[in-house]
Structures are given as structure tokens and as C-alpha cells.
Amino acid sequence: MLSQKTKDTLLGPLNTNNPVVVQILGICSALAVTVQLKPALVMGIAVTIIVAMSNVIVSLIRNTIPMRVRIIVQLVVVAALVTLVSEVLKAFAYDVAMQLSVYLGLIITNCILMGRLEAFAMTNKPWDSLLDGLGNGLGYALILVIVAFFRELLGAGQLLGFQVIPQGFYDFGYENNGMMLMPAMALILVGCVIWAHRAYNDKEAK
Amino acid sequence: MEHALNLFIRSIFADNMIFAYFLGMCSYLAVSKNVKTSAGLGVAVTFVLVVTLPINYLLQTQVLDPLNLGYLSFILFIAVIAAIVQLVEMIVEKYSPSLYASLGIFLPLIAVNCAIMGGSLFMQQRIGLPDADPKAITSLFDAFMYALGSGIGWFMAIVCLAGIREKMEYNDVPKPLQGLGITFIVVGLMALAFMCFSGLEI
């Protein structure tokens, strides 16, 4: 249905060109919001929407932006969109917005956004930019969900706030690993995800 | 005075930008390959933090709060940061071309460093806290000390990591883990070490 090129633009960032584990963009928020699955999901969706929309907007006005001030123009477009999303979240999902706290505002300086705007939207048509933004947002969300899944499961025995590890396990002396909730473990987990991803892709290449 | 000193020490160790909040991670990982450039970037980040935070503090307390324009804060803060970075770039270029050459592309990129924006947003949260709270920022001087502490904390973290990575060049790391994988794990272990500072009180 889609041509090979558009397919690559959309699906490449999910695996071989993942923004987090391959391009190493947007690490700050990827680490900070992954204590639980729910904020990670919301953050993933918010970033996907903002990357896609800012890609389209910047791509539409790319020929009118003077090169010297382009960073400020891009920042203002992104900041306006982030303000919009954060006001919507505060209205409809207040507790999640509070959990995300400053990291919601930090989407503005999320390197994925600036990286995609600079590398893709400035030189491509709006439709391709939309697909590129969606792909990169989803690739980012994917890593967030993987890391948050392990942190919430091992750290609190829950998923999305529901208890999944049965009480019987605790009776036998199983304990939640409180370390998983600490910032340090997020870094080590992302390190392990990168390790697994590279090991898998190296094998594929051979 | 005591309160400001407490803020300063806490923001270096317990509330370290990198190890407790992961702010400025992208440039932290990208620029920490050798000690010299990382120290330059650390100084630049500290300087921009120290200049922008007091300005944003005044904007927040004198303009946004009285006029009830809180929702404009994202746009205003990022505009201030981008403008200051541009200014710093021009000043450094004019008065110290050697420093300008050694910092290169990293100088303009400070505008999108999460540590700077994060500092402003954390300060915005802390303005609302009651005076007795050790984290509260109640005056311009507090904001200045918080910025200085955060900057020094960031500087220290990036120089430490660069030192470790320089040594690690000679180690035999499993192939898929080389480069970023091992760097993440090293930063994780450093963050573990820094956790012993949490709960520090003066």
C-alpha cells in the first residue's frame, strides 16, 4: 500500500533507526518518566503528537525561515505545541500531568524534536515529515514502555497500577526490588536495552 | 543566608541535575569523550544557568504571577534562554576567540540543553513552596545560588564521566555493549554512588 520509501520513513525509527537506542536522542525524559507504565504511556503519546505536528508545521514554513534564526523559530513552534498539550493534560488527566511535572515542559528541549526538525523537516515535504514524526515518536514511546514495564513489574509488582505478582509469591518470601524505582536503575536498564538491541541487530546483519 | 547555602550544597550533591533528574543527558553523553572539552562545556552550561535563572525568576515573580499568565511560561523561558545563549555566543566570539573555537558547535546547542530549561522549570515549581521548606526558592539570591549549585553539579558529573571514559578506552568491553551501552551502565553506577548524598542536611 505504501511505497518502500514511505514505509522506511515510518517504520525505520521503530527498530533499526530508533531515536533512543540508536540515535541517542531524548534520553532525559526517557529515563525520568519510566518509574510506572502509565506516565510513560502518556509521555510517549504526547511526544508522538508533538513531534508529528511540529514536523508538519516546520516543514510547511521551511522555505520562509531565515537560516540564522531557525533555531528560535523552531523552539517557538515547539513551545507553543507543548503549552497546548500540557494545558489539555492538566484539564483532562490532572494526576498524570502532576506526575510528569517538569518533564512535560522539558519536551521543548527534547533532543528528538530538534533533531528531527533539523535533520528531516527542514528539507522534506509535509506528508513525509508527518510520517517521520509519527515513526520517531512511536519509536521513542516503544523504548519508554519497555523500560517502564520492567521497572514497574520488578520494582512494585504492578502494571498500570494493578497488582500482577500474586500475594502467594510474597508469602513465600518474594520481595519487590526497590532499586528498580531509583534513578540509577533506569540508566542501567537503558544500557541493557541498547545491549540487547545491538546484539540482536548484529546477528541479523550477519 | 543559611537557607541559600543549603540550597547550593543540595543542588550540587543530593539534587544533582544528572544523577537525580537526568537533565542535559544528550550533550552529557555526546561530549564526555575527553576531559578538556567536557570541562569547557561544563563551564558554559554553568554560566548560562547562572545568567538565565535569575532573569527567569524575575519574569516569573514580577510579570507572569501578577498578571496570571502562567501558561506562557514555557514560551517565555525558552525565548530568554535562546536569546541569552545567542548573546553569550557573540560576546565570547568577540572577546575570546580561542575559547569560542574550542567550544565550537556546543555553544549554540546549550539553548536546547535540558539542564537549562529544567533548571528554570524546577525553580518555577520551587517558588510556590512554603518558606520553611529547604527546597524553596524565595529570593533572587536563592535563585542565583541554586543556579550556581546546579551548574557546578553538572560540571562535576561531566568531568567525572569523561575521566572514566578516557580510562575505559583500554578495557575489553563485549562488542554489542561498546560505546553507549557501557556508558549508560557506568553513569548508572555513578548515580548509585551519588545516592549516598540524598537526604543531606546542613
Description:
The complex is a heterodimer of chains A (206) and B (202). Chain A has 206 residues and is mainly α. Chain A has one domain. Helix content of chain A is 69%, strand content 2%. Chain A is built from 10 helices and 2 strands. Chain A has a two-stranded antiparallel ribbon. In chain A, a hairpin with a 2-residue loop joins strand 1 and strand 2. In chain A, helix 7 packs antiparallel against helix 8. The longest helix of chain A is centred in the C-terminal third of the chain and has 31 residues. With 202 residues, chain B is mostly helical. Chain B has one domain. In chain B, 71% of the residues lie in helices and 0% in strands. Chain B has 9 helices and no strands. The two termini of chain B are 12 Å apart. The mean pLDDT of chain B is 82. The chains are: A mainly alpha (206), B mainly alpha (202).
Note the main attributes of this structure.
heterodimer; A: 206 residues; mainly alpha; two-stranded antiparallel sheet; 2% strand; globular; B: 202 residues; 9 helices; 71% helix
Uncertain parts of chain B:
none
Number of helices of chain B: 9
The gross shape of chain B turns out to be globular
Number of helices in the DSSP assignment of chain A: 10
How much helix, percentage-wise, in residues of chain B? Answer: over 70%
Please report the distance between the alpha carbons of the first and last residues of chain B: 12 Å
Question: Main β-sheet of chain B, in a few words?
Answer: none
Intertermini distance of chain A: 29 Å
Give the total of beta strands of chain A. 2
- Output the radius of gyration of chain A: 19 Å
Low-confidence stretches of chain A: none
Chain pair forming the biggest interface:
A-B, 43 and 46 residues
Counting DSSP E segments of at least 2 residues, the number of strands of chain B comes to: 0
What is the N-to-C succession of helices and strands of chain A?
HHHHHHHHEEHH
